[in-house]
Amino acid sequence: MHPTVVERELELQLVLSPERSIPVPALLSYYSDDPYAVHITFHIDSDHPVDWTFARELLVEGVFRPCGSGDVRVWPAKAAGRDVVLLALGSPDGDALLQAPAAQVSAWLERTLRAVPPGSEGDRLGLDGLLAELLAPIPDDLWTHGPWPADESQDGE
Prior knowledge:
Elements: E1 5-17, E2 20-31, E3 37-42, E4 50-55, H1 56-62, E5 67-69, E6 72-79, E7 82-91, E8 94-101, H2 102-115, H3 121-125, H4 127-134, H5 140-145
Antiparallel strand pairs: 1-2, 1-8, 2-3, 3-4, 5-6, 6-7, 7-8
Protein backbone atom coordinates (compact mmCIF):
# COMPACT_ATOMS: atom_id res chain seq x y z
CA MET A 1 0.00 0.00 0.00
CA HIS A 2 1.47 3.33 -1.06
CA PRO A 3 1.35 6.13 1.50
CA THR A 4 -1.16 8.90 0.88
CA VAL A 5 -0.09 12.51 1.33
CA VAL A 6 -2.67 15.23 1.96
CA GLU A 7 -1.29 18.78 1.79
CA ARG A 8 -2.71 22.28 1.84
CA GLU A 9 -0.92 25.59 1.61
CA LEU A 10 -2.60 28.44 3.43
CA GLU A 11 -1.88 31.75 5.01
CA LEU A 12 -2.10 31.88 8.78
CA GLN A 13 -2.04 35.02 10.87
CA LEU A 14 0.54 35.33 13.63
CA VAL A 15 -1.34 37.27 16.30
CA LEU A 16 0.97 39.87 17.85
CA SER A 17 -1.75 41.75 19.76
CA PRO A 18 -5.55 42.03 19.59
CA GLU A 19 -5.13 44.77 16.97
CA ARG A 20 -2.15 43.47 15.02
CA SER A 21 -1.19 40.29 13.19
CA ILE A 22 1.14 39.38 10.36
CA PRO A 23 0.64 36.78 7.62
CA VAL A 24 2.64 33.56 7.82
CA PRO A 25 2.59 31.16 4.86
CA ALA A 26 2.17 27.59 6.06
CA LEU A 27 1.86 24.07 4.71
CA LEU A 28 -0.43 21.55 6.39
CA SER A 29 0.72 17.97 5.72
CA TYR A 30 -0.68 14.57 6.59
CA TYR A 31 0.97 11.24 5.75
CA SER A 32 -1.01 8.01 5.91
CA ASP A 33 2.12 6.16 7.06
CA ASP A 34 2.24 8.50 10.11
CA PRO A 35 -1.53 8.32 10.66
CA TYR A 36 -1.84 9.85 14.11
CA ALA A 37 0.05 13.06 13.33
CA VAL A 38 -0.41 16.29 11.43
CA HIS A 39 2.49 18.47 10.38
CA ILE A 40 2.57 22.23 9.96
CA THR A 41 5.51 23.90 8.29
CA PHE A 42 5.75 27.66 8.74
CA HIS A 43 7.67 29.56 6.08
CA ILE A 44 8.92 32.52 8.03
CA ASP A 45 11.67 34.95 7.08
CA SER A 46 14.55 32.66 7.90
CA ASP A 47 16.82 30.18 6.17
CA HIS A 48 14.93 27.23 7.62
CA PRO A 49 11.19 26.66 7.88
CA VAL A 50 9.73 25.90 11.31
CA ASP A 51 8.04 22.50 11.63
CA TRP A 52 5.47 21.43 14.22
CA THR A 53 3.99 17.95 14.57
CA PHE A 54 1.11 17.05 16.84
CA ALA A 55 -1.88 14.72 17.06
CA ARG A 56 -4.43 14.90 14.26
CA GLU A 57 -7.13 14.21 16.85
CA LEU A 58 -6.13 17.41 18.66
CA LEU A 59 -6.70 19.52 15.55
CA VAL A 60 -9.97 17.73 14.70
CA GLU A 61 -11.34 18.36 18.19
CA GLY A 62 -9.97 21.92 18.29
CA VAL A 63 -12.09 22.92 15.30
CA PHE A 64 -15.16 22.35 17.50
CA ARG A 65 -14.08 23.03 21.12
CA PRO A 66 -11.03 24.09 23.12
CA CYS A 67 -8.57 21.27 23.64
CA GLY A 68 -4.91 20.53 24.28
CA SER A 69 -2.53 21.49 27.01
CA GLY A 70 1.12 22.29 27.29
CA ASP A 71 2.90 22.97 24.01
CA VAL A 72 -0.14 22.81 21.70
CA ARG A 73 -3.62 24.19 22.37
CA VAL A 74 -6.35 24.58 19.75
CA TRP A 75 -9.79 26.22 19.88
CA PRO A 76 -12.45 27.71 17.61
CA ALA A 77 -13.12 31.46 17.60
CA LYS A 78 -14.48 34.33 15.53
CA ALA A 79 -12.31 37.05 14.01
CA ALA A 80 -13.78 39.89 11.96
CA GLY A 81 -17.00 37.90 11.69
CA ARG A 82 -15.26 34.81 10.29
CA ASP A 83 -14.83 31.38 11.86
CA VAL A 84 -11.19 30.73 12.68
CA VAL A 85 -9.15 28.12 14.50
CA LEU A 86 -6.58 29.41 16.97
CA LEU A 87 -3.37 27.50 17.60
CA ALA A 88 -1.28 28.37 20.63
CA LEU A 89 2.18 26.87 20.27
CA GLY A 90 4.80 26.98 23.00
CA SER A 91 8.45 26.00 22.94
CA PRO A 92 11.63 26.88 24.81
CA ASP A 93 12.25 29.41 21.99
CA GLY A 94 8.99 31.24 22.63
CA ASP A 95 5.24 31.17 22.22
CA ALA A 96 3.07 31.89 19.21
CA LEU A 97 -0.65 32.40 18.69
CA LEU A 98 -1.73 31.61 15.15
CA GLN A 99 -5.08 32.09 13.51
CA ALA A 100 -6.20 29.84 10.66
CA PRO A 101 -9.31 30.03 8.48
CA ALA A 102 -11.66 27.37 9.91
CA ALA A 103 -13.21 26.46 6.54
CA GLN A 104 -9.81 25.71 4.96
CA VAL A 105 -8.54 23.75 7.95
CA SER A 106 -11.80 21.77 8.15
CA ALA A 107 -11.74 20.93 4.43
CA TRP A 108 -8.14 19.72 4.71
CA LEU A 109 -8.93 17.67 7.84
CA GLU A 110 -11.87 16.09 6.03
CA ARG A 111 -9.50 14.92 3.29
CA THR A 112 -7.18 13.38 5.92
CA LEU A 113 -10.14 11.61 7.54
CA ARG A 114 -11.15 10.15 4.17
CA ALA A 115 -7.56 8.99 3.56
CA VAL A 116 -7.35 7.30 6.99
CA PRO A 117 -10.69 7.09 8.82
CA PRO A 118 -10.64 7.56 12.61
CA GLY A 119 -10.09 4.25 14.36
CA SER A 120 -8.18 2.70 11.44
CA GLU A 121 -4.87 4.45 12.10
CA GLY A 122 -3.35 1.38 13.78
CA ASP A 123 -3.99 -0.72 10.67
CA ARG A 124 -1.66 1.61 8.74
CA LEU A 125 1.24 1.01 11.09
CA GLY A 126 1.41 -2.75 10.53
CA LEU A 127 1.60 -3.34 14.27
CA ASP A 128 -0.28 -6.65 14.10
CA GLY A 129 2.36 -8.16 11.83
CA LEU A 130 5.19 -6.74 13.92
CA LEU A 131 3.65 -8.08 17.14
CA ALA A 132 3.11 -11.51 15.57
CA GLU A 133 6.77 -11.57 14.56
CA LEU A 134 7.94 -10.49 18.01
CA LEU A 135 5.72 -12.99 19.79
CA ALA A 136 6.47 -15.94 17.47
CA PRO A 137 7.87 -19.01 19.22
CA ILE A 138 11.65 -19.21 19.27
CA PRO A 139 13.05 -22.31 17.53
CA ASP A 140 14.46 -24.88 20.00
CA ASP A 141 17.85 -25.06 18.28
CA LEU A 142 18.44 -21.38 19.07
CA TRP A 143 18.34 -22.18 22.79
CA THR A 144 20.74 -25.13 22.52
CA HIS A 145 23.34 -23.53 20.25
CA GLY A 146 22.93 -19.82 20.85
CA PRO A 147 23.94 -17.05 18.47
CA TRP A 148 27.47 -16.78 19.90
CA PRO A 149 30.53 -18.92 19.06
CA ALA A 150 31.38 -21.82 21.35
CA ASP A 151 34.13 -21.18 23.90
CA GLU A 152 36.78 -23.69 22.89
CA SER A 153 39.57 -22.43 25.14
CA GLN A 154 41.15 -24.83 27.60
CA ASP A 155 41.90 -24.01 31.22
CA GLY A 156 45.31 -22.48 31.60
CA GLU A 157 45.65 -21.22 28.06
